[in-house]
Amino acid sequence: MYKIANTFMLIFLIFFIFLLIPQMALAWGPGVHTLISFNLLDELKAYGSVFYPIVSNNFWEFLYGSLAPDFMVAKKLVSKKNNSHNFDFADKLIDSAKNEKELSFALGYLSHLASDKIMHEVFLSDYKIVNSFEHISVELLSDAYYANYLNVVSFVLKRKSALDKPLKANFGLVINTFIGKNILRLSTKNAISSISKNIVVNNFKIEKIDKKVIDSYIKFSLKSSLTRITKLK
């Protein structure tokens, strides 16, 4: 009975996300951002970037930063002043970093935005995806392809950190961030990943975008992130 009730609750939460808050559309989901982060670490090493030792020695902070921009939900409803999902905010994080942990977090934050830029301006444009539900569907399908990385996301989000304090400028943003982090935690559940993929394939006709296509855009996002970081002074 407990398992049935638990499964029902998971299904209800998925439909809640789909039907009630389409403004929550992100770009890449947490699983893909984590995949990109691991690959980016290798690319920074191969490039010989001065930031490689910082990221390598503080990789948890980097991973946390790569998820942090999506702690803010319903970004379209947040005032421009308080919206932290932009490159200006990332640049401020980098400039104000007082130690290597904070800098690694800020670099992860920047990499997230650079990756999302490819998703928004290239991937969604190429496939003419403008509907919020289809947008969320692509996110869910992409993460379902890389469900093994969701375990890493779950581990990262379990640890408490003050690194996301700049995202909480007022009480409203504290609540916003709390909701966003818990939605990301929910998305890491295996049942959520499986159910969401089935919903996508059976109802939104996104199955035409196969894994090879998504892989190509992920590589493009990785390149964008590497370029952003290596151009920093």
Automatic annotation (TrEMBL):
Superkingdom of origin organism: Bacteria
Molecular-function annotations in GO: hydrolase activity, acting on ester bonds
Organism: Desulfurella multipotens
Name this polypeptide is given: Zinc dependent phospholipase C
InterPro entries: PLipase_C/P1_nuclease_dom_sf, PLPC/GPLD1
All copies of domain Phospholipase C/D, residue ranges: 32-177
